[in-house]
Amino acid sequence: MKPRFKELLGSKRPKPTPQSQSLPGLETRMNPQPLSDDPRYKGSGKLQGKVAVISGGDSGIGRAVAIAFAKEGADVVALYLKERTDAERTRKSVESYGRRFLGLAGDIGDEAFCRKAIAQARRQFGKIDILVNNAAEQHTVDGLEKVTARNLERTFQTNYFGFVYLTKAALRHLKRGAAIINTTSIQAYNPSPTLSDYAATKAAILDFTRSLAKQLAPKGIRVNAVAPGPVWTPLIPASFEAKETPHFGRDTPMGRPGQPCEMAPAYVFLASEIDSSYITGQVIHINGGKGMFS
Fold first, then answer.
1. 55 backbone dihedrals φ, ψ, rounded to 5°
2. pLDDT 10s digit of each residue in the chain, 294 long?
3. Are 183 and 206 in contact (CB under 8 A)?
4. Are the beta carbons of 57 and 101 closer than 8 angstroms?
5. Cα 38 from chain centroid (whole Å)
6. Of 41, 56, 101, 274, which is most buried with the most CB atoms under 10 A?
7. Mean pLDDT (the chain, rounded)
8. In DSSP terms, which residues pair with 182 in a beta bridge?
C-alpha cells in the first residue's frame, strides 16, 4: 500500500542516496525528490490578492514557499539563477492553484539584475506585498586555508549582498502592511567547521533582519526570518560530497533532514497580516530539534 504523506516525512521516507551535482543544483535530478507540496495543507485565503517575490523560488524551500503562498491566494514572482527546468515545475504548481506566476532568471548578486527583476515584477502585477530573500549557495571546505577568494566572494555576493540588493530595489514599492522574510540558518547559531563562510553570511542575515525591522517598523513593514536546520534541497548534493548525502540530517533528534514543505508554513505565518501583525525582528527555528548552541 502506498504510504500516506505524513508517513513519507518519517521512517518510510526513502533516505538520500549518494549523489553530487554542480552548483546551484537541480531538484529534478535529486533522489529522492524533495517534498514541496503537502496535500494536507489547505489554504484559507491568508494571502489573497498579494504579490510575492521569492529569490531561489524555483526549487527547495523557495519552491515550497511559492506553492504554499499560491494556496493562500498570492501571485508569485520566482527569481532563479539558471535552473529553468525546476522553475517550470514551480510555475505549473503555482498555476494549478489558480494563481499567476512569473519566473525571472539572473544572478541576485548583481544589483542591476535585482533592480530589473523588481521593476518587471511591478510592471507585471502592479505591486509587491511580500519579499522572501531565500536564494543561497555554499561551498564546503576542510580548513580555512582551503577557502578560496573566489568562493568566499561568491558566497557573500549571493547570500548577503543579494539580500541587500533585492531589498533595496523592492523597498520603494512596499506599502504599509508589507512583509519581508529572510532565510537565515541554524548555521548562524551553531556553525559547522566546514561551512565557516556560509555560516558567516547567515549570521549577517540575522543582524540584517533585526536592523531592518527597526528601520521599517515606523512604516508598517514587518521584517522577520526563518532559520532552517538541515533540509533536503538541491543545495545539499550540489555542495557536499556524494558519500556524505546519505547521512545528511541524521544527527537531528528526529533522525532525518527536514523537507521543504515543512518550512513553508512558517513563511506563510510571517507573511500574513492576520497571523503575525505584531511580530517583527524575530526568527522562527525549524530544525528537527537540533541544538542551536553546542
1. -80, 145
2. 566 777 778 766 778 888 888 888 888 889 899 999 999 999 999 999 999 999 999 999 999 999 999 999 999 999 999 999 999 999 999 999 999 999 999 999 999 999 999 999 999 999 999 999 999 999 998 888 999 999 999 999 999 999 999 999 999 999 999 999 999 999 999 999 999 999 999 999 999 999 999 999 999 999 999 999 999 998 898 888 888 898 898 999 999 999 999 999 999 999 999 999 999 999 999 999 998 775
3. no
4. no
5. 16
6. 56
7. 94
8. 133, 225
Distance between CA atoms of 30 and 265, rounded to whole angstroms? 23
Residue at 142 is within a domain: yes
In sequence order, the β-bridge partners of residue 55 are 79
- List the grid coordinates of 280: 517583527
What CATH number has the domain bearing residue 263?
3.40.50.720
Q: Considering its fold, how many domains does the chain have in total?
A: 1
Query: What DSSP designation does 257 have?
Result: -
Q: Is residue 15 part of a domain?
A: no
**14 located within any domain:** no
Residues forming beta bridges with residue 78, ordered by sequence position: 54, 103
Angle between helices 196-216 and 162-171 (to 10 degrees): 20
pTM: 0.95
Q: Which three cell numbers stand for residue 193?
A: 567547521
Which amino acid, 8?
Answer: L
Closest CA to 267 of 222, 236, 207, 219: 222
The residues that are catalytic are 198
175 part of a folded domain:
yes
Q: Which residues fall within 8 angstroms of residue 121, CB to CB, at 6 or more apart? A: 51, 53, 77, 102, 104, 128
Cα distance between residue 130 and residue 174, in whole Å: 8
Number of Cβ atoms within 10 Å of the Cβ of 229: 23
Range of the domain at 146: 41-286
